[in-house]
Amino acid sequence: MKWVEEFGDTRLALRVLDDIRASVTRPWALMEVCGGQTHSLIRHGIDQVLPKEIELIHGPGCPVCVTPLETIDKALEIAATPGVIFCSFGDMLRVPGSDRDLFAVRSEGGDVRVVYSPLDALTLAGENPDREVVFFGIGFETTAPPNAMAVHQAARRGVPNFSMLVSHVRVPPALEAIMASPTCRVQAFLAAGHVCSVMGTGEYPAVAKKYRVPIVVTGFEPLDLLEGIRRAVRQLEQGLFEVDNAYPRAVPAEGNPTAKAMISDVFEVTDRAWRGIGTIPDSGWRLSERYRAFDAEHRFDVGRISTVEPRECRAGEVLQGLLKPDECEAFGRACTPRTPLGATMVSSEGACAAYYRYRPLGVSSNG
To answer: Which residues have a Cβ under 8 Å from the Cβ of 321 and sit 6 or more positions away?
Structure first.
């Protein structure tokens, strides 16, 4: 409760807002990278009370949302395979594939189960030696250590019927891809604190220097976000482009060495497709050669699957920061959490879901 009370203090928030208003002299566009930050910003109405000069652009920081359609279709084919127990976190079950989702596979008889940890799936594999148990391993750097640990433990314990469908993505290459785009309007980033708590801040100075863009590591509570915005605006107004850690209570500069060592042991860097964005070089992880036997994509021979994104869904533009969710003609009408056109409407960190839940139709976004 201590952190909740201190970092949600209204009086302190108003003081930081006053400081932001006093320092801003021209329009600036800031991108929050994490979907959890997007939800906090919209839930607390922070984007509504900022000076009109500051625009918040919602970035591709939802791991469910950026998981490519072809990976969803691979998951669906594996989950529908007889003898398979397919395990996933709950927010993946409603993500639409080309013609159905994991809920539909389960209704058709597939053994699809919600778990709370990849180690739960490993336990299931030990309890069901006559079944293939597959865990859907997605996420940014935050979820990579426990997923790596599950594979490491499967190898150490000798559990041959466990495998993982991996779709891990890395933040720094995504920031570079955003800045290199000819349509980019981002002038500063609010970096995801939980990612940096694992990986540290060492990869960001090169990005900040190359693209002359401030990067402020930020938390998730209202005051965390306001302080991150304040520091980013201060740098922009002064013509600086540095990495600033505004979340020191959770983020050491070096990150978590033990977690990083586990990632390095189990995964290797690879190119990765991002839903609605395209392939970004060196932006993902896959299982290294040492652990390739636990790769579900190879075990079930689903690498051949390729797909085309549906034209009616504009989630790709939302993920690139080119479109606010409520600017999409399908938002809240043809596209709702019950009838989603894309993952951004069903994920717990999706920008469209945040707007649907906290921003009624007709209430415009700041900027």
So the answer is: 31, 57, 58, 59, 60, 178, 185, 186
For residue 45, give the nearest of 226, 179, 287, 189 by alpha carbon: 226
Name 287's bridge partners: 267
pLDDT at 4 over 70: no
189 contacts 227 by C-beta, under 8 angstroms = no
Q: What is the pLDDT of residue 367?
A: 46
3-state helix, strand, coil in the chain (%, to 5): 45, 20, 40
pLDDT tens figures, 42-69: 999 999 999 999 999 999 988 889 998 9
Q: pLDDT category, 178, cuts 50, 70, 90?
A: very high
Q: What is the mean pLDDT of the chain?
A: 92
- Which run of H or of E encompasses 196? helix 193-199
Domain 67-169+255-299 class? Answer: alpha beta
Question: ∠ CA(335), CA(341), CA(344), 5° rounding?
Answer: 90
The residue extents of the domains of the chain are 67-169+255-299
The tokens of 188 are what?
Answer: 């500063």
- Per-residue pLDDT, averaged over 340-365, amounts to 81
Length of the chain: 367
Q: Reduce the secondary structure of 299-359 to three states and give it as a string.
A: HCCCCCCCCCCCCCCCHHHHHCCCCCHHHCCCECCCECCCCCCCHHHCCCCCHHHHHHHHC
Instruction: Give the per-residue pLDDT at 1.
Output: 42
Q: Helix (H, G, I), strand (E, B), or coil: what is residue 102?
A: helix
What pTM did the predictor assign? 0.91
CA dihedral sign, ordered 32, 328, 64, 351: positive
